[in-house]
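Limitations

Structures in this collection are predictions, not experimental determinations, and the ligand pose is part of the prediction. Treat each record accordingly. The example that follows, with S-adenosylmethionine as the small molecule, is included so readers can see exactly what is and is not provided: the inputs are given verbatim, and the output is the predicted complex.
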Amino acid sequence: MLRFVFTKTARYPGHEVEHNQFMRNLRTLAVNIKYRGFRRTILGLLANIFAKARLSLLEEYRFFKQNIRESGLDTTGIVECDKLDIPDERRGSARRYEASSDYEFRYVLEKLHIDYSNYHFVDYGSGKGAILAAAARYPFRSVTGVELSQALHETARDNIAKLQDRGRVRSGALTSVHGDAASYRLPAAAHVIYVFNAFGPDVLEDVLARISEDLADVREPVYFLYNNPMHHSLLDESPEYDRLRNAFGGKWKVYVRRGGR
Ligand SMILES: C[S@@+](CC[C@H](N)C(=O)[O-])C[C@H]1O[C@@H](n2cnc3c(N)ncnc32)[C@H](O)[C@@H]1O
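Predicted complex:
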């Protein structure tokens, strides 16, 4: 019974990741209060309850509407895999589009306590750019998203233009690149890498191989933030990475690759 209440399994055929749902909800609540404030969090929770009961009360406080109002960007919605405009040979590996929570992202990122201006940031499978917008709030050397779908990449480009028009970019160059994560080349410098369950183990293996190759001579740490880490065993078993922590009841895993190995 307790296991049922506390444990939730994220599932894809052949893969599963269990996380502590109670800890996740508790942490999510605390993070929402930290970044959104108490009043807007409570109104958002009430709006969710009303929406579940099919009552259109407090509609404008639904969390996703608060996010659109706050950022001015629409990164919401789900695009299922069969609707993604991607090459057929990648259809088996690609996961559907869905934006991450930028508050969860900011919480995990800030826990690294790093000097952002020493790091480049890359989101592999960046979709409409929700996390690019969140990362651009920090003074990274650059913020880059790599997205396989042309349509999502174009939306991300529009969102980036809006952010730039509004003067909301603190990072260096903010870019969405249309392409395959497996073949993206990194500059030889310190990085914070982000993946939100974007692809299967075949592409993740190629991504990790590229990172090893391109950053072989980099002495600074490389952080790997893995949200909904369906294929975490690849990082757990890699001699290059150490797991730093779990966050949100294990729904996030944070790894570090220390330079000089
Ligand atoms: C779950 S979404 C994550 C979106 C974004 N990172 C965020 O957190 O808001 C996963 C994205 O990965 C993209 N994707 C899947 N396979 C890819 C690949 N091989 N190369 C680049 N992008 C890929 C999908 O098109 C989708 O937009």
